[in-house]
Amino acid sequence: MKKIIGISMNRQQGQNPKNFLDHSYVKAVLAAGGAPLLIPNIGEAYAQEYIKNIHGLILTGGSDVTPFYYNENPHGASGPFCRPRDVMERALYREAIKAGIPVLGICRGMQVIASFEGGSLIQDIPTQYETDMIHVLPGAPYATEHFAKAVEGTLLSSILGAEERIINSIHHQAVRELPKGFTASMYARDGMIEAMENKEAGVLALQFHPERLHADETDYLKLFQWLVKEAK
Ligand SMILES: [Mn+2]
User: Fold this and answer.
1) Which pLDDT belongs to residue 213?
2) Distance from the CA of 188 to the center of ligand 1, in angstroms?
3) Is the pTM of the predicted complex or chain greater than 0.90?
4) 95 an active-site residue?
5) How many domains does the chain have?
6) Tens digit of pLDDT for each residue in 3-60?
7) Is 209 labeled as catalytic in the residue annotation?
8) Which of 2, 5, 7, 115 could crosslink 35 through cysteines, CB 3.0-4.6 Å?
9) What region does 162 belong to: left with phi over 0, alpha with psi -120 to 50, or beta?
10) Which domain holds residue 120?
């Protein structure tokens, strides 16, 4: 039987609200041998039911998480926010940790985990972080790329190796303070945290987008294979 990997979805608000997801996440889970299950933003009451029926969880990329979770007002360049998604993903994350199933956070997914676990975010890198690197292109959603290196001895380095590599980058926010129990598992050359993990809890969080890379750089498939292997 294939392991079921729950994947959180984006929500577009407005007159005709939509739940939607990049197909690249679905393809990555399939390529890693898992069965993807897309989870709509329908309220935290459903989180427990979903978690009972999945073996691993991916928290995906998307718009900014509300900064109230880390006790800050919104910066002028942050947002738009989507409270229904924040609420749903927080509940999914909590229930996943309680159930002991592994969690892979990607981009916003990493940022929500940091926010929900008591860490904090750089709300806007261009105005709040001194760097000569580019982490997001003005023309986003197209990704830029930069060097990054996994920290030796981490879960991430055991999956990808600890050599410096090129990752994609499409984020204007990033983790400022790591939550308790988490360690940084990858850094960019400017000191930006590009991944974090809580190995004991089975949580791996990435600031880059491996789902967009795995097709031509098979290395990145290993991250999804890790999730499927650990799924229970
Ligand atoms: Mn970056």
Assistant:
1) 81
2) 7
3) yes
4) no
5) 1
6) 999 999 999 888 998 999 999 999 999 999 999 999 999 989 999 999 999 999 999 9
7) yes
8) 2
9) alpha
10) 4-230
